[in-house]
Structures are given as C-alpha cells and as structure tokens.
C-alpha cells in the first residue's frame, strides 16, 4: 500500500549458492565447462580461469580438470588459445567456427585439436593459485606440478612474442582483450576498416552470425564490428599466425586490463614456481618490469584511470573504460594511484556506491557514446566486477569492496545468472545460465 517502505533486500544466499552450482553443472561437458550452452558451445580461455575459481568451492578436482583441459590445447609456441572447439559440436554452431581459423600452423595445437589462433587475458595462473591455496594437499601439489610449466610457457610466449612499445605486451585482435567492442577499440578499428576494405569480408555477415539467434542484436556488437573482426583474423591467419613484425598487422594495441592481469598472474606464477621448487625470481622480475611500464606509460592523470595504446600509431586511446581500473589489482602502486583510481570508481563515470548505479559499468556512464544495453559499452559484467572487488580488498578499501559485493549479489538475485546487466535498471542482458557469473558469485559468497 501507499506509504509502505519497500521490503529490505534479504537475498536467499543458500538458494543462490545452489543455483550457481546447478548452473556450473548444467554447463559441464565432460572435461570442461562452456560459458553458456547455446551462444558459446565450446571452451573459452579466460572463462575457464574464472570458472575454476568458482569450482574451487565445489570440487578442486574439477577446477584443475577445467584448466588442464584448456592447456591440453596449448600451441607448440606456448599460446593458450581463446577458444578450444568441441569436436562433438557442429562446426556452424558458433561463428566464426573451426573452418574460418584453418589452416592452423605447424606451431599450433596437437594434431586433431581445433582452436582459434588468438589468446585471451592471462588470469589462469592466478586461478590455479586460488584453487591451490584453498585446498592444500598432495593432489593439489601434483596438479600444480603439472600445470606450472604450461602456465610458464604461455607467459613466456606473451613476454617474448607479444612485446610491443617498450616492454608492454600487445594484443592483435579486440577478442584478445576479452572486452570485444570496448570503446577503446573504436579508433584503431576505424583505421583498420580502411585497410580491410578489400579483404575477404563476408557480404552477408548477419546471415553468418550465430550469436544473433541467441541474444538480442541490440545487446551485441554490430555487423560492422564483426566485419572488421573477421578481416583482422583473416590477415593474421593468412600469415600463419606469425608474430614477427606485429605492427604490420591491421590491429595491434596495448590494453591495461590485459597487461595488469599478466603482471598479477606473473606474481601468482612466482608463488607456483616456489611450490614446485622452480626459480620464482624471473617471474617476480617480469611482473615488476611490466607493472613499471604500465604505471609509467598508461596512466592518464586527467581521466583518473589507465588508458589503452594504439601500438601502430603510438597514440593513447583516451577513454574511461573498466579495463583502465583493473591495474588497481597490482601490489606496489605508485603513490597517489590508489586514491586516484578509487575516486574514479566512485565518481560519476562509474558510480560505485551511488544509489542509481548497479555494480561497476563497463564504460563511463557520462560518455555521450555509452550504450547501457550493448555488451562492453556500458553494461555491468560479473568478471570485471569480481576483479575490482578483489582489487579493493587487496588495497584495504573494505567499505567499497563490501558495497560492490552486495551489488553483485543483488544483480544476480534480481535478474538471474545473466551474461551482463543494465547498470542502472539491473535488467539481465545477453545470455542466461552464464558460467562465470555463477562461478564468481560463489566466490563472493564464500
Ligand atoms: C568472442 C565467452 C566470451 C568471453 C568474452 C566475451 C564474448 C566472444 C563472442 O564471450 O566473446 O570471444 O563471441 O562474443 O566478450 O570476454 O570470453 O564468454
């Protein structure tokens, strides 16, 4: 009745935990977990790392199995692929499916294993360490001994083959950032578009896209984005996914989230090395060197966050995106950096703690081109929120961390285990039964 205050929000935490576990079970395919059944019917690299962090609360054996399966598709050159295709799924169930990525080169995966030729943000060593810390024992020691050399080879690949712009590590496709249609990539994609005009772009991109059968077109990247994504892959594929002369590729950028996760995971790798009797020193050194480059080259004091860099032109890509807040995870931030990032996080652009904003949006809410329904251009995502929640706790920002955790719980309690959420209304967007949403909620509720 009028005048009655709304009931206080009391989430059913036991029910949420049960449903999160059920979501992960539903998406398990025998050796790994799909991000969600229809839209993404294969194994994705950074999804599996987040999923393992959640599985650690249910079954450490399964958590290690998830990451072992992923690393079974590691390439000869060390790269851990963005997607491992499930041979039991029809090749046209996901676009672009296996045929588009062929031929895979000699330095690719083992014979009979089908993958893409890209990578995703390296959060895997951190996931392995998280599972290991929660479950000490012989089985964990054996899993760590098995996974450590593979994780180290992946990082070796990134540090040796993907180094661009004085020591920073680059990406060669928006898909490698994990934040595919982030506003960061508008400018470099626009420039690539001109070069790609004559490449083998499909005429009927809409007809080929499978995502549009499972999600609202207004929540997804556009056809124009897809055309460019395909052209950039084609250029990389046609040179055998070779990483020589990266700057001659149509797209080559440096992303703050990618570099911050690599530096963070390199610290995790140092701890995993210690546990296996290997030398942690080289990992710590690499982590510190990369963090130094990130802190000195990518922080934009006027925006109050880190920005990306177009490695081809040397131009900074000056936007406030959630990627630019993720370096808050790193130990040893330069003086004043923590408070600058927290001010941005809690200011009007991201609105953490404000009554009108749910979680941390993927893009600056005050930007004229923010689109609160469309993928990485505004909506709130559980994985980036989990990274920031972790960062806030590590930096001793307990009050903000608690507020973020309660926003995350409430979003899921209201809208379900959705892929992403409207940052103002909390409406669920994209796919449902989304694995990392379930996994990371389990971790927040632990
Ligand atoms: C391309 C699986 C993946 C996530 C990415 C997210 C989305 C794929 C797509 O889904 O990307 O990799 O087809 O749109 O952007 O971060 O890993 O959940």
UniProtKB/TrEMBL annotation:
The keyword Hydrolase applies. GO terms for biological process: oligosaccharide metabolic process; protein N-linked glycosylation. SUPFAM superfamilies: Six-hairpin glycosidases. Residues 40-437 form the Mannosylglycerate hydrolase MGH1-like glycoside hydrolase domain. Pfam families: MGH1-like_GH (PF22422). Keywords: Glycosidase, Hydrolase. GO terms for molecular function: Glc3Man9GlcNAc2 oligosaccharide glucosidase activity. InterPro entries: 6-hairpin_glycosidase_sf, 6hp_glycosidase-like_sf, Glycoside_hydrolase_63, MGH1-like_GH. Belongs to the glycosyl hydrolase 63 family. This is Mannosylglycerate hydrolase MGH1-like glycoside hydrolase domain-containing protein. It comes from Saccharothrix ecbatanensis.
């Amino acid at each position: 009745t009028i005048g009655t205050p709304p009931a206080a929000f009391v989430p059913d935490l036991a029910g949420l935990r049960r449903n999160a576990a059920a979501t992960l079970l539903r998406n398990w395919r025998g050796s790994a977990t799909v991000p969600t059944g229809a839209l993404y019917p294969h194994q994705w690299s950074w999804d599996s790392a987040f999923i393992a962090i959640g599985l650690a609360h249910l079954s450490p054996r399964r958590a290690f199995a998830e990451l072992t399966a992923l690393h079974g598709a590691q390439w000869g050159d060390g790269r851990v692929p963005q997607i491992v295709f499930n041979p039991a799924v029809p090749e046209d169930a996901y676009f672009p499916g296996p045929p588009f990525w062929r031929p895979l080169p000699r330095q690719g995966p083992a014979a009979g294993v089908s993958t893409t030729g890209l990578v995703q943000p390296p959060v895997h060593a951190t996931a392995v360490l998280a599972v290991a810390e929660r479950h000490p024992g012989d089985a964990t020691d054996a899993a760590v001994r098995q996974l450590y050399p593979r994780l180290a080879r992946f990082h070796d690949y990134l540090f040796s083959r993907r180094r661009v712009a004085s020591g920073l590590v680059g990406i060669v496709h928006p898909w490698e950032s994990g934040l595919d249609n982030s506003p960061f990539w508008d400018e470099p994609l626009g420039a690539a578009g001109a070069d790609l005009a004559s490449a083998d772009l499909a005429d009927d991109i809409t007809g080929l896209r499978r995502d549009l059968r499972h999600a609202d077109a207004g929540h997804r990247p556009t056809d124009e984005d897809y055309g460019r994504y395909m052209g950039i892959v084609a250029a990389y594929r046609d040179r055998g996914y070779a990483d020589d002369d990266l700057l001659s590729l149509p797209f080559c950028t440096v992303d703050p989230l990618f570099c911050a996760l690599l530096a963070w995971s390199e610290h995790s790798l140092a701890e995993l090395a210690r546990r296996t009797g290997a030398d942690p020193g080289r990992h710590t050194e690499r982590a510190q060197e990369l963090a130094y480059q990130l802190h000195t080259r990518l922080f934009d004091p006027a925006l109050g966050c880190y920005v990306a860099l177009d490695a081809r032109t040397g131009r900074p890509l000056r936007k406030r995106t959630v990627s630019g807040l993720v370096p808050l995870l790193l130990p040893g931030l330069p003086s004043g950096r923590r408070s600058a990032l927290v001010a941005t996080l809690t200011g009007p652009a991201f609105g953490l703690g404000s009554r009108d904003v749910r979680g941390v949006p993927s893009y600056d809410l005050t930007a004229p081109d923010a689109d609160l329904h469309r993928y990485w251009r505004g909506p709130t995502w559980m994985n980036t929120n989990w990274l920031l929640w972790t960062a806030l706790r590590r930096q001793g920002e307990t009050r903000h961390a608690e507020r973020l955790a309660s926003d995350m719980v409430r979003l899921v309690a209201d809208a379900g285990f959705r892929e992403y959420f409207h940052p103002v209304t909390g409406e669920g967007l994209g796919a449902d039964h989304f694995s990392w949403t379930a996994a990371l909620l389990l971790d927040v509720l632990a």
